[in-house]
What we know:
The chain is of the alpha+beta class. It is about 20% helix and about 30% strand.
Amino acid sequence: MSRKANPRESVGMNGLRCDDEGPIWLQIRRAISAMITSGAWTPGMRIPSEIELTRHFGVSRMTTNRAIQSLAREGHLERHRRIGTIVASRAQERPAFEIWDVREIIERSGERYSYQLLEQLIVPEDDPRRDLFNVRRETSLLWLRCLHLSDDIPFQLEERLVNVDAAPEILRMSLDQTPPGPWLVNNVPWSQAEHTISALPAATREADALDLNVGASCLVVERRTWNGEIPVTLVKLWHPGSRYRLKGQFEPVR
């Protein structure tokens, strides 16, 4: 069992490094998370300040803040005005999920990203899709259906419900130009996420959108996010099984 450190005890930065995979703020987030899950930074320890981390990584203060804030929202870090940011008491028990931007995945592979908004509507009060969210009947829900393409070939079909009460500014967005996923991640706070990954056959609607035969195997990622007790969004991401590979890196807790 890891000892609980004195909050005044600061951690070192030996081994704290980026992995050159994806956006720099996510690399910093992964680097900090790895120090926690490996046991190098134990609960109660004060982590380096934003200024120290900014100098260490050679990035802007805003980039460092974004990484720290995301880990704090998920309960890995605790921010205190007087003593700084410390490792949360149960941080090692919490998996640190990342919500990747499909555009970055496609462009990192050297291909050209494009996007289409297929459908957008406010869900009627008697619509069965409302049953997917535990909200009042008068709560405004936005339904979106989007297609993400790689070199003009369908790569991901996105079906999304958004709680407008949790993200009111989304109604002002030009979602035919701006994909909803990255905008939500950057602008709407969330404290908890739940992921489900399945292999499902494409029905007619999914097959038509993804240019597949009906019944073709798809990798489907379903994700729900909440801000406290308030549901924020529910999204179902369909990927042609032959065109998508899910990859992750992790280390055992020591």
